[in-house]
Specification:
With about 220 residues, the chain is mainly beta. It is built from 1 helix and 15 strands, in the order αβββββββββββββββ. Strands 1-4-5-6-7-8-9-10-11-12-13-15 form a 12-stranded antiparallel barrel. A 3-stranded antiparallel β-sheet has the order 2-3-14, with no helix packed on it. The chain starts with 9 loop residues before the first helix and ends with a strand.
Length: about 220
């Protein structure tokens, strides 16, 4: 069964689709730029996490990344199953921050995959410190084959914008390497409840991101 969920930067660290084995695992990574859903989180970022996946399809994990002003710390759990030719998943992700970079996000994550195609939908709420909380939906359509992938993603409800993420990932000597081109189709418009003005990508922006990582069985 394919891994159903990778939070935060882990979602972009690798384009390689791997078969997950049951049990505990850990991961370490570094990205030349941490861009998540078209939003620049940090000009460079180290990350690490711990995950557990059971034979039944249940998974739980945590993951943290450097966002400049403290850490982004994600917690997630869910369930994935293969039904016929389809991979299906449902889960929860919480995004938390140790500094003033941002406030909390809470999401329900839904996924479906068939052959080389997959659809991921996150329905979430952003806890705004001074003002009304915001509701958003993020969607991502992905095609992936032999390490190459292309993702069309975007936002709805209180957030707006669309982007493309095209890249390639491979493993050499047990080290995971990746490169991606992120291009914004429609300006990304979101609210980030931060002491620092967020850097949002516009329709004229294109960024190349390089990643390196390694996973360990525990």
């Amino acid at each position: 069964m394919k891994t159903i969920h990778k939070a935060g930067l882990a979602a972009s660290l690798l384009a390689v689709s791997s078969v997950a084995s049951a049990g505990w695992s850990a991961n370490l990574g570094f990205a030349s730029e941490y861009i998540f859903r078209g939003v620049l989180q940090n000009t460079s970022s180290a990350s690490g996490g711990v995950d557990y996946e059971a034979d039944s399809g249940f998974y739980i994990g945590t993951w943290a990344a450097d966002v400049g002003d403290g850490l982004e710390v994600d917690g997630y759990f869910g369930y994935g199953a293969t039904v016929g030719d389809f991979d299906l998943g449902i889960g929860y992700t919480g995004y938390f921050f140790t500094g003033d970079f941002d406030t909390e996000y809470h999401e329900i994550n839904l996924s479906a995959g068939f052959s080389i195609f997959s659809l991921d939908v996150a329905v979430g709420q952003h806890d705004v410190e001074f003002g009304s909380d915001e509701d958003y939906t993020h969607y991502a359509f992905t095609a992936e084959k032999n390490g190459f992938y292309g993702t069309f993603g975007g936002f709805a409800q209180d957030y707006d914008g669309q982007y493309l993420d095209i890249g390639y990932g491979t493993t050499i000597a047990e080290i995971d390497l990746g490169v991606s081109l992120i291009a914004v189709i429609d300006d990304i418009v979101i609210d980030v409840d931060s002491a620092v003005e967020p850097v949002l990508l516009n329709a004229t922006d294109e960024t190349i991101v390089f990643t390196i990582g390694k996973s360990f069985d525990l």
